[in-house]
C-alpha cells in the first residue's frame, strides 16, 4: 500500500504525531479494509489546510454536523491517494476551482475521535478517523460557495482567527499545530 510508505516516511513534528503515526501503521497492519467506511471502527480520511498565496489566511467551512468552523476534507472511500481526496474535497466543499498542493508530501497526521451522529437520516456510530492532512493553496479572491448538505458557510480567516473560530477544543489544538508548522515554512 503506497499510503503505508508515505506514512512510514513522514517525520512527525511532536510526540502526538509520533503516536498517531504508530497507530496508523499498526491499523494498516491489522485490518484489511482501512480505506472505506465499511470499517466502522476507524478508517482513513484526508483533510487540508487551504492557505492563500501569502500564507496569512486559511479557508474554512462551517461544518453542519460539528456545528463549527472547520478545515475541509473527507473519507478516502477506497482511494489510497489521499492528496487527490483532499483536493477533491476542497473543491467540492468550498466551490473553489483553482487549488494546488504546496507540497505533495503529508503536512500532518491526526487520529481523531468522531462522536456518533446522524448523517443522511442514518445513525453513524462513534469511530476513529485516521487523518492525513495536506497543505493546499488557493486564491482568496476566487468565488466560493457552500455545499448545503455538508456546510453552511465558506470563509477566509486570518490564521489565528481560524483557530478561535472553531467550537471544538481538540480541533483548536490541531489548527494551532497546523499554523505553527505553516509559520515554520516561511
TrEMBL record:
Family matches, as SUPFAM superfamilies: Nudix (SSF55811)
PROSITE patterns: NUDIX (PS51462)
Domain Nudix hydrolase: 41-181
Cross-referenced Pfam families: NUDIX (PF00293)
UniProt xrefs under Gene3D superfamilies: Nucleoside Triphosphate Pyrophosphohydrolase (3.90.79.10)
Similarity comment: Belongs to the Nudix hydrolase family.
Name of the molecule in the record: Nudix hydrolase domain-containing protein
Species whose genome carries this gene: Terrisporobacter mayombei
Amino acid at each position: 500500500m503506497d499510503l503505508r510508505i508515505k506514512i512510514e516516511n513522514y517525520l512527525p513534528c511532536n510526540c502526538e504525531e509520533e503516536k498517531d503515526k504508530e497507530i496508523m501503521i499498526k491499523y494498516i497492519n491489522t485490518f484489511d479494509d482501512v480505506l472505506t467506511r465499511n470499517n466502522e471502527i476507524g478508517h482513513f480520511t484526508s483533510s487540508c489546510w487551504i492557505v492563500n498565496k501569502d500564507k496569512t489566511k486559511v479557508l474554512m467551512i462551517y461544518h453542519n454536523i460539528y456545528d463549527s468552523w472547520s478545515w475541509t476534507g473527507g473519507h478516502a472511500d477506497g482511494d489510497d491517494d489521499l492528496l487527490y481526496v483532499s483536493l477533491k474535497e476542497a473543491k467540492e466543499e468550498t466551490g473553489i476551482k483553482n487549488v494546488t498542493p504546496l507540497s505533495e508530501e503529508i503536512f500532518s497526521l491526526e487520529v481523531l475521535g468522531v462522536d456518533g451522529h446522524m448523517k443522511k437520516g442514518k445513525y453513524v456510530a462513534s469511530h476513529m478517523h485516521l487523518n492525513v492532512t495536506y497543505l493546499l493553496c488557493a486564491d482568496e479572491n476566487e468565488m466560493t460557495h457552500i455545499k448545503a448538505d455538508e456546510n453552511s458557510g465558506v470563509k477566509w480567516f486570518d490564521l489565528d482567527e481560524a483557530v478561535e473560530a472553531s467550537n471544538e477544543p481538540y480541533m483548536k489544538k490541531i489548527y494551532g499545530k497546523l499554523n505553527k508548522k505553516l509559520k515554520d515554512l516561511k
